[in-house]
């Protein structure tokens, strides 16, 4: 008897993974690949599109050969701000430009002068000014720097939709990709921004379909459906939306700590945009207010500094217990630097000789990071009646972080959430109804409750 499964490609900047999930959303097969980056025409690093394309087909051939699985559907989740420009034949005509590629100042100035200034564009598109990370700006750049190339582009697809096109043969756009810091979408008008039409960019964009849309595969004789693909941050939110109906904020932690609030519908303010807030788009088309903090990256850098100073292994913090007495002592210590502009914690300026041990310095680092996290998450919460905070990713396993966060939000229920492969599961759940006859599982996410200091110590739920 074959096991009915869905195949999900989860394409990150570093790791490209294929998962097969059974009807209970348990992983029954997994394959991972890494590719060496290539360079674009300016010598800047970028994704190797050809390796990625071949890997998708190789992986699918492998799982189709396995007689124990019956593939019912395929979907994709991939990182955002990445456009694949294809010609009439669906062949890429340009590199997949890296979203960290520096953006020319003169072109950036010209754009914002034409369309009412940075503040106005940031407000209407619900995104800070981020250069190439505003993926629509990549097309604007091609139009003015490479007009011959611009003419050859039949369609510009975000990476998840390009992957879907490889299997379905159909070109579509999806709101989770368009709605995420692209500068393409006007959140105040709920339509493309005026510049997209005025610059002729609209002619290069595929029709928009719902995030749960499914199409037949382009290979004859196969009965499986192909999803349109999702932006990875939006996909990772889906298991939470499916599992919890009371308002919540999800702090997704990694290199960036992103606080996502699907229950906050207040427009972004100028101050929020300057503090790195933006809107993502829910897979069913409603805005998700979010705030970003580069805390995972800062943690990594500062842990190296602490480990070096105290002659300890970098990984020591991983098994460290939370010490409330140490925190109380550090809170009594007067003075010290203040956070720099809300983006970097005070810790970088602290003198490590002021601390007697690795543990003490580490607790101070986490206190400084959680001070910033409190401000960042507070921006996403403001204006909504959220009472719960879920934390997933690296910091959810860090008891020092979790206890300090519970103290920072005493009026909230704070949970560490653990779930294997939230992004991939989200992409599968988005098209649940088309491939899975069973009800949605209610045990997708495991929660661990952290009480703040005035309550009992840590409890479990």
UniProtKB/TrEMBL annotation:
Signal peptide: none annotated. GO terms for biological process: xylulose metabolic process. InterPro entries: ATPase_NBD, FGGY_C_2, FGGY_N. GO terms for molecular function: D-xylulokinase activity. Residues 6-194 form the Carbohydrate kinase FGGY N-terminal domain. The keyword Transferase applies. It comes from the Bacteria. GO terms for cellular component: cytosol. Residues 246-433 form the Carbohydrate kinase FGGY C-terminal domain. It holds the Pfam family FGGY_C_2. This is Carbohydrate kinase. Transmembrane segments: none annotated. Keywords: Kinase, Transferase. Belongs to the FGGY kinase family.
